[in-house]
Amino acid sequence: MSEFESTPSPETREAEAREGPRIYVASLSDYNAGILHGQWVNASDDVEQMQDEIDEMLADSMMLSRYGETAEEWAIHDYEGFGSLHIDEHLGLPTIARLAGGIEKHGPAFAAWASYVGETSDDLLEQFEDRFQGKWIAVESYADYLLDELDAQRTINEAPEWLQPYIKLDIEGFARDLQISGDIVVEERPEGGVWVWSGH
Known about the structure:
Ubiquitin-like (UB roll); 10 helices; single chain; alpha+beta
């Protein structure tokens, strides 16, 4: 059994207090003119609300008053709360909203999963809950739990009594083979331990 969780539930959510995901969007025309003009936008908002905030930021640009140009293009120059995910400066708002929503719902484990499968892999992102096996102190802990679920000890008990003392489950080898075969996906947690997902 997991040494972090009472049950390895797919609904497991990291209970750490943290600010929600957000992005810093900047006006590109201002940036190219040597002016830093932008603002932080809550990435958990819906796409329309994020776009409205970006449009307001662009409308407040000094490019019109200084150079007679309207600011229209923007890029993401910074971001927070996305865990191990790398947010490209031109990533679309629908994708950002989806990633932020997953992180808000499931915590940093979702960010790790999205980093593994790719932030634009919609089908695989949707499989997070079905595949998530929880957080564990080590991959061997999960392998030990899985062997219990598979009732591996019963097979040993069915061997001749004289042979049983010489039979030992190779938990480390089993954990290694699970990863090599792609049966599980393992990502390290920043705080220690691992997250585990089924690989198929």
